Amino acid sequence: MMMMMIIMTMMMTTNDYDVDDDDFYEGNDDVDGYYDYNDHDDDEDDDDDDDDDDDDDDYYDVDYDDDDYEDNDDAATDDDDADDNGVNIKNYQAKPTSRFITVSLPAVFKKTDLKFSRYLYWFCQRPLTTFCKVPTHGMASEKENTQKHVFVSHTNPVTGKMDWIIQDENYDYVQEIARSGYGDMLHDTDRNQKYYKAIRQAIKLLRERNKKVKVLDIGTGTGLLSMMAAESGADTVTACEAFSPMAKCAKKVLDANKFGSKVKLIPKRSTSVMLDDMKERANLLVTELFDTELIGEGAISSYTDAHQRLMEEDCVAVPTTGIMYVQAVQSDLLSCWNGIQPVHLTDEISVDIEPKLIRCSGSPSLHDLQVDELAGKLKLLSAPIEVFRFDFSRRNALKKNEESHVEAMAVQDGRIDAFVMWWDLIMDPQGEITLSCAPSWIRRKGEIIPWRDHWMQAMYYPSRLKSVHKDNMFDVFSHHDEYSLWFETEHPVNQRPISTDGVHVAFSRTRLGQINNKERRQVYIDAIKEHVTKDSVCLVVSDGSLLPLMAAKLGAKQVFYIDMNQSCCRIIEDQIKHNGLEDKVCILDKRPEDIISEDLYNLKIDLVLAEPFFQAAHLPWEHLYFWYALNSLRSQLSPNIKILPTNMTVKAMGVEFRDLHKIRAPVGICEGFDISEFDKLIENSSETADEEIEPHSLWEYPCQALTSPVPLAFLDFCQAVENTPKLHQTTELECF
C-alpha cells in the first residue's frame, strides 16, 4: 500500500537555510535521530555492520529475513518491481526519537509521477490544525449530508487558544469504533487459522465423548469465531457482544454468511448474560479476550464468571492455557525510556538530576512496542523464563492475585534494566496448537513470523537495578492482579508499584527517550555554547525541558522559562532547586500573551530557546505553538534577538510499508467468511472520526522508499507568523 511519510525536522541554525536535499541530509543522523535515506551504498552498510559487531560483541545479534514475515497479498501493490527498484529503508531505519507522519493516499500507485496537493495555512488569528490535506475530490458519502453536527470548543494546540470546531454529535462513539483495532486482528492469519483448527479439534473431542456441542463465544466482535464453530458442526452457538455497534455489525455479518439462524447473538456483557438467555449451560468456551498483557482486558473475571454460571464443569476451552514468559535484558536505550539522565555539558559542568528521577520506581502502565525492531539494542541476560500459567479450561483455576518466584541463570554478565514479556496460547486440549507472541530471536530459523500490532511484546522495568554474572543464579519475582503485571529482581511486593516521583505522569516513555537522546542533546549543547554569553538574557519556551538549566549552567545572565504543563513544570522546578539555580532561572507562571516587562525584570530577551515540545501537541507541527508564543512576546525581544531553532523544513517521501497498512486495510474474506459488513462499519466510522494524517513511531514499522524526499515547506521562525504567506501548490514525487 502506498502511503505518504511526512518528516519534520528543526534546523538549529541562525543562518539563512537553503532547502537543498544534500544540505538537509548531511549530518542529519545526529538531529532527532534521522538517517540519511539518500545514502544507499551497500559497501558502506557492510562497514557499518562490521563496526557494530566490533562494538557490541556481547549483544545478541537479532537477524532475520523479511521472507520470514507473513505477507498480505490482497493489500499489497501489484508492482512487482517495487522491491527491486525501491530503497529498503529498513537498513536506514529511524531511531526511536524520530518524528514521522503517514498520510494515506486514496489509491495504489504504480511507477509514475505522484502528485501531492498541499494546503499549508499559517494565520496568527485562525490556523488550521490540519497541516496537510489530501483532497478526496467529492468522495463524501450521501450520509454525511444527513448527519447531525454540533459546535465543540477545544484548545488549539498550535495557538494555545480556544477554537470552535464542527463535529459529529456522536464523534466519541464513532471514534471508539474506528479505533477498535478489530481489523488489525482479522488480518492476523496465524491467529485466525489456529483458532479455526483448535475449534475443530475441540468439537471433535466433544463428539468423541458423545456430547452435544454447545458453544459460548464471549466478546464475539465480528462473529468470526462463532461462524467457525457453526461451520465446524457445533449444535448450538451463543455469542455475546457488549459493544452495541459491534453487536449490530456481527448480526449483519452472520446474516450475510447464512449463520443468522445458527448463532444466537446476545448484545450483553458475558457477566450480564443469564442462563435463561442461553437455555442451558455450554460445554465449549471460545474467547479472544486478550491484550498485550494477556489479562489486561478483564480475562480473569470473565472466565471465572463464565465457568461458574454459564459453563458445564467438564467443559472444553479454546484457548485452553496461557503461558507467560519474561527474559532479562540490558539496554542503554531502555534505560533512557525509564527516567531522566543527567546532562554533561563540559568536563566540569553538568545538569544534575535528582537520583529518584534517574531510575524511577515504577510506571502505572506497561511499555508495549515492536521489540524486534530493537535489534542490536538489547543484551540478553537469560533464557526465556516461564513465570505464569493461566488455565482457561477449569472452574476456579484463575487467581485475581498471584505471585511466583523463579531462580534463573545468567547467560552473560550484565545489568538487568528490564524484562521483555510475551505469552503463548495453547489452543487445544491436546496441546498440539500453539499461538505464540515470542520475539523473532526465540523462533526457529525459517519460521513464519506473523506481524501483530494488537499483541506485542512488553517491557517491564524493575524498581531496582541488579547486576548479574554469567552462570550465576538470580531471582525473578513476578506478580499480577486482575488486570496488570509487574516484575522485580528483589524485595518482592504484593502491590503494584506506582511512580511516586511524577515522572511517568508528566512524561511519556517516548518523551523520556527524546530528552535523554545523546545526539539530540549535543545539538542543543553546541548551539547554546555558541550563542550564550555572560550577558545573555534567555527565554525558553517548551514543556518539561532541561534547556533552561543547560543555558543557566553554561553562563547565561538570566533565564526565563515558560512551561504550559503543570506536571512537567513541577519536575523542572525541582531540578532547578536541586542544581541551585533559583536565582538564575525564573519560571513564568503566565501565558505568553499575558507577560509584561515587569515579569522579565524589565530586561529584553536576546536569545530564545525551544526544543520545541508541548504536551498538548498530537501531531509534530502542533509543537509550533512555540512560534505563536514567540509572536505574542515580540515587544519583549531585543533588536538583536537570536532564535533557536531558527527555522523548520518539512519534507515528504512516498513509502511502502511492509505491515503498517494492515491497520487500515479492509478485511473482505477471512478464513472463507465474508467480513465486508465490518469493513463498511470501520470505513464509515473512520470517515467521521479519523484525520487524514496520523502519527506513528515509524521506527517500529519497516518500510521501503518509493520516491526521493522532497521539501514541502520552509518556515522562518525569525519572521512573524502573520508575515508568512499561505502556501497552496502541488508537488510531484517521482517514483523510482
From TrEMBL:
Any single Pfam family the record assigns to this protein: PrmA
Acidic residues biased stretches: 21-84
A single GO molecular function term of this UniProt record: protein-arginine N-methyltransferase activity
GO terms classed as biological process: methylation
Keywords: Methyltransferase, Repeat, S-adenosyl-L-methionine, Signal, Transferase
Keyword Transcription regulation tagged: no
SUPFAM superfamilies assigned to the protein according to its UniProt record, in alphabetical order: S-adenosyl-L-methionine-dependent methyltransferases (SSF53335)
PANTHER family: PROTEIN ARGININE N-METHYLTRANSFERASE (PTHR11006), PROTEIN ARGININE N-METHYLTRANSFERASE 7 (PTHR11006:SF4)
Protein name: Protein arginine N-methyltransferase 7
